[in-house]
């Protein structure tokens, strides 16, 4: 018994919605980064589901899974840069909240 | 893997198409090695400029013998891509020259700075040449991640760290949008190739693919700084080190525009009006924001938003007329070439002023600059006039070309609105010029500047390019 592809797509859509909602509502930068990771993983899941949707027994569609590998690698880089920036902010403001950003408004 | 298949993919055409990328990547590796050994540190400028010039040479070679599509149809090095590549390289070089004197007082990791700066054009070229969503994504990240680091490069200043973080958070969000959009398109159509997608779009996209396309377009509009995704621009442009702002304002915008023009075929035909409306709203948001600024760096950031609106008009015109026309491509290239010279020159002068003290970018402290530093004030005036689109400057002709393409696409109302917006824009450019020439010097007089030959040369180059593009445009148009 296998999971229907539609379920994968629906799960991905839910993950994406949670990610977007978290991005807009949370003030803690670490949680914001986590929300972005959720969005990326929603894309990963959709790519894999799409590959299954368009593969037949003889010919496997590899474009999607290859894209997923790139996304995973890039997500790691983004997390490294993002957390480094959060640490730089913490050193200056002793906070990781988005509220620390008010300074540049005019 | 099958050796025949490898030979089929990696042929001479492929080598020519990838030569600029390989040159830059090779230069990047040499820069990293040079960083390890103290005596080699002196070679850094040579390596940087050498890689840029080498890549430019490879692009010129491509210009004479363009290559349509290589690597299984995922990357194109046609004439337009080669010209875009030259625009990116010019933008990077201008940013680098100004960075050399900008960080003079507090030199933080100049080696890393050069490496990050040299990575950016690789990403831009991949974005402009991408014929596949995977390639575009890798290019986008190769450009964005160095820019996140560069924007927060002055870790001692909280503005810089915040600019970097803001750019990072919103950039990562827009990448998330792009990826989910791309995955929806893939799930709906089973392909990531732009050629195949354009063919599929011609017969009509499924709703799922259309939603995906909307996400992809949204993330591109973010990179182009289009209303309502423009709110980050003033903060990030102001907070980032000014040489980095040069790259963000010119190169990034050019790369995003090049790819947006490539994928207009994937948009539904009815979207032309909506995009044109967004374009006019972007111009309005940029111009109204710029009118009330007291800081020249922030004013130029808002002016950049307004220019993004003009460029979006071009995207709308191209969608309305269907095929990627020669006129739209040449207008986009000319506009961005002029913008690189103009905005690069203006932000470069700001970097120069700013190196002496943070507050010298206030319009207030520019008062009387015309008497204190006539050459600098004259150059700034030229750049501001070109940004405003005054005849005999490159900016005028660039705007002219965009509006004539828009008129040809029967978007008459939007073109008229765009022209009116350009007139409003003149108000704030002229305000700065008036402050420089017609008002008595402020008490915040800048100390006499150290002689900076490289920054002076870069400014002179930009000024000359703006004038030549305005007076003898055929020199540039002949290339296209």
Walk me through this protein's architecture:
The complex is a heterodimer of chains A (106) and B (480). Chain A contains three helices and no strands. Chain A has helices at residues 5-25, 29-54, 63-93. In chain A, helix 1 (5-25) runs antiparallel to helix 2 (29-54) and helix 2 (29-54) packs antiparallel against helix 3 (63-93). Chain B has a domain at 280-480. Chain B has helices at residues 3-9, 12-36, 44-64, 79-102, 110-129, 133-151, 158-189, 194-202, 207-224, 232-239, 242-262, 271-291, 296-321, 326-354, 369-372, 374-388, 394-408, 412-438, 453-471, 474-477; strands at residues 67-70, 75-77. The mean pLDDT of chain B is 89. Chain A binds chain B through residues 9, 12, 16, 19, 23, 29, 32-33, 36, 39-40, 42-44, 46-47, 49-51, 53-54, 61, 63-64, 66-67, 70-71, 74, 77-78, 81-82, 85-86, 88-89, 92-93, 98, 100-101, 103-106, and chain B through 133-134, 137-138, 141, 145, 148-149, 152, 155, 158-159, 161-166, 168-169, 172-173, 175-177, 179-180, 182-184, 186-188, 190-192, 234-235, 238-239, 293-295, 298.
Summary keywords:
heterodimer, A: 106 residues, mainly alpha, Helix Hairpins, elongated, B: 480 residues, 20 helices
Order of helices and strands of chain A: HHH
Structural class estimated from helices and strands of chain A: mainly alpha
Could you give a short account of the major beta sheet of chain A?
A: none
Distance between the termini of chain B: 40 Å
State the end-to-end CA separation of chain A. Answer: 60 Å
**How many domains, in number, for the residues of chain A?**
1
Largest sheet of chain B: 2 strands, antiparallel
CATH topology of chain A: Helix Hairpins
What is the overall silhouette of chain B?
A: globular
* Number of beta-strand segments of chain A: 0
Give start-end ranges of low-pLDDT stretches of chain A. Answer: none
The chain pair with the largest interface is: A-B, 46 and 44 residues
Broad CATH class of chain A = Mainly Alpha
Oligomer kind: heterodimer
Overall, the morphology of chain A is elongated
């Amino acid at each position: 018994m296998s999971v229907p592809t539609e379920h994968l797509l629906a799960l991905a859509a839910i993950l994406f919605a949670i990610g977007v909602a978290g991005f807009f509502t949370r003030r803690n930068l670490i949680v914001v980064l986590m929300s972005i990771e959720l969005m990326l993983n929603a894309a990963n899941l959709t790519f894999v589901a799409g590959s299954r949707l368009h593969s037949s027994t003889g010919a496997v569609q590899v474009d999607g899974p290859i894209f997923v590998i790139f996304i995973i690698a890039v997500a790691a880089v983004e997390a490294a840069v993002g957390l480094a920036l959060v640490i730089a902010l913490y050193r200056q403001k002793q906070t990781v909240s988005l509220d620390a950003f008010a300074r540049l408004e005019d | 893997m099958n050796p025949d298949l490898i030979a089929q993919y990696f042929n001479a055409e492929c080598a020519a198409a990838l030569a600029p990328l390989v040159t830059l990547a090779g230069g990047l590796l040499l820069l990293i090695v040079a960083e390890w050994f103290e005596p080699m540190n002196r070679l850094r400028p040579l390596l940087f400029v050498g890689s840029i010039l080498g890549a430019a040479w490879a692009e010129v070679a491509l210009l004479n013998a363009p290559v349509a599509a290589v690597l299984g149809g995922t990357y194109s090095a046609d004439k337009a891509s080669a010209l875009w590549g030259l625009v990116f390289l010019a933008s990077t070089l201008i940013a680098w020259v100004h960075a050399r004197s900008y960080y003079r007082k507090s030199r933080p990791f100049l080696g890393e700075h050069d490496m990050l700066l040299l990575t950016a054009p690789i990403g831009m070229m991949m974005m402009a040449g991408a014929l596949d969503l995977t390639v575009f994504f890798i290019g986008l990240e190769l450009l964005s991640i160095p820019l996140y680091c560069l924007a927060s490069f002055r870790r001692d200043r909280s503005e810089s760290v915040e600019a970097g973080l803001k750019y990072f958070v919103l950039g990562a969000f827009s990448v998330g949008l792009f990826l989910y959009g791309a995955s929806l398109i893939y799930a709906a159509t089973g392909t990531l190739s732009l050629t195949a997608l354009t063919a599929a779009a011609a017969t009509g996209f499924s709703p799922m693919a259309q939603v995906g396309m909307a996400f992809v377009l949204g993330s591109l509009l973010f990179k182009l700084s289009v209303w309502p995704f423009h709110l980050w621009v003033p903060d990030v442009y102001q907070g980032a080190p000014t040489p980095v702002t040069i790259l963000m304002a010119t190169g990034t915008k050019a790369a995003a525009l090049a790819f947006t023009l490539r994928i207009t075929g994937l948009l539904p035909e009815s979207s032309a009006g909506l995009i044109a409306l967004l374009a006019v709203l972007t111009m309005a948001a940029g111009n109204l924001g710029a009118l009330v600024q007291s800081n020249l760096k922030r004013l130029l950031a808002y002016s950049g938003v307004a220019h993004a609106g003009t460029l979006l008009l071009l995207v709308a015109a191209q969608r309305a007329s269907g095929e990627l026309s020669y006129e739209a491509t040449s207008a986009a290239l000319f506009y961005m070439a002029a913008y690189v010279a103009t905005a690069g020159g203006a932000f470069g002068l700001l970097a120069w002023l700013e190196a002496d003290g943070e507050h010298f970018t206030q319009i207030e402290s520019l008062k009387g600059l015309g008497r204190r530093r006539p050459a600098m004030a004259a150059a700034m005036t030229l750049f501001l006039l070109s940004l405003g689109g005054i005849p005999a400057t490159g900016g005028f002709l660039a705007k002219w070309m965009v509006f004539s393409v828009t008129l040809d696409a029967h978007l008459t109302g939007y073109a008229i609105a765009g022209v009116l917006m350009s007139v409003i824009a003149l108000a704030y450019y002229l305000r700065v010029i008036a402050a420089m020439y017609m008002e008595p010097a402020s008490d915040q007089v800048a100390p006499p500047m150290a002689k900076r030959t490289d920054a002076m040369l870069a400014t002179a180059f930009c000024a000359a390019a703006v004038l030549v593009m305005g007076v003898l445009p055929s020199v540039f148009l002949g290339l296209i």
